[in-house]
């Protein structure tokens, strides 16, 4: 693999460039080699792309990453699967679905390390990289999870602790979570059911569905996907909502709330005592707040 492509993948891994920027650079390498110095390379990195190009990212990135990391990967039968006493997991998956579930055991366990899988341990941390295969992982309920997924669906259930998530081209489902959640989703829908804590979520082009419980706050933002929030009557929060360029804000709740501020594309309402704040932002999409229907 060329030195330039290695640089691109390394910068993507380190978070210095985004997946869309990496995809454009990798695609350019497929047509012609770089014959220039660092200045032209840097200018290519900072090239801006439109939302319409995001759908092309997953296959390009997955293919490039796959060719880059084959060395050191193991077949399923050779991979260690149980890690007693571990409570921190880094998981990167390319072209495969991921399911992470919390349990009462004091260990991290890999149930289905499909495709090519590489596993490392470092102190309290388990690092898993998987290519072209689905993977199921069980973690202790109080855990730290860092998850990167390219071209695959993600499900995370039952955790309390700290969750960092980056997903490119795949739907994401999060349920029964509490703690600190930071999620960045590109080109996929995001559903968060029975979640609480500090929520910091950004979506580029997918819809967001949120059903929070208990104490919650943070910021949920979407560029071109709708946001729907379903609240219980005991919600204690200020909703700070804004559609920046176009879109509508709709309230469909049967319990009391107080309007604190209202403008053409901005609405701020208080439910309960309003001890916490949840910001909802879209650029070109709708925001809808409904009452949760009891089962």
UniProtKB/TrEMBL annotation:
Which superkingdom, per the lineage? Bacteria
Residues of the YvlB/LiaX N-terminal domain: 3-32
Instruction: Report domain DUF4097 positions.
Output: 83-233
Under the heading InterPro entries, the entry gives:
Toastrack_DUF4097 (IPR025164), YvlB/LiaX_N (IPR053959)
Name this polypeptide is given: Uncharacterized protein
């Amino acid at each position: 693999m060329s030195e330039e492509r290695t640089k691109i993948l390394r910068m993507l891994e380190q978070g210095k460039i985004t997946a869309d920027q990496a995809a454009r650079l990798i695609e350019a390498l497929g047509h012609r080699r770089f014959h220039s110095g660092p200045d032209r390379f840097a200018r290519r990195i900072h090239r801006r792309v439109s939302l319409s190009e995001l759908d092309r990212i997953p296959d390009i990135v997955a293919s490039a990453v796959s060719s880059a990391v084959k060395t050191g990967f193991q077949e399923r039968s050779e991979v260690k699967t149980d890690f007693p006493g571990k409570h921190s997991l880094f998981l990167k998956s390319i072209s495969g679905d991921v399911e992470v579930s919390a349990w009462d055991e004091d260990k991290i366990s890999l149930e289905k390390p499909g495709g090519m899988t590489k596993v490392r341990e470092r102190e309290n941390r388990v690092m898993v990289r998987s290519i072209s295969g689905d993977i199921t992982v069980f973690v202790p309920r109080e855990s730290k999870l860092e998850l990167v997924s390219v071209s695959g669906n993600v499900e995370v259930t039952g955790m309390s602790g700290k969750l960092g998530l980056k997903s490119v081209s795949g739907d994401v489902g999060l349920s029964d979570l509490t703690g600190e959640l930071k999620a960045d989703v590109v080109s996929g829908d995001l559903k968060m059911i029975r979640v609480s804590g500090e929520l910091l979520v950004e979506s580029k082009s997918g819809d967001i569905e949120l059903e929070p419980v208990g104490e919650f706050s943070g910021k949920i933002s979407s560029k071109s996907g709708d946001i729907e929030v379903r609240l219980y009557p005991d919600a204690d929060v200020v909703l700070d909502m804004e559609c920046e360029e176009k879109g509508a804000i709709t309230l469909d709740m049967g319990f009391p709330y107080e309007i604190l501020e209202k403008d053409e594309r901005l609405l701020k309402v208080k439910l309960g005592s309003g001890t916490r704040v949840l910001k909802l932002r879209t650029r070109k999409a709708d925001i809808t707040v409904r009452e949760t229907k009891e089962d």
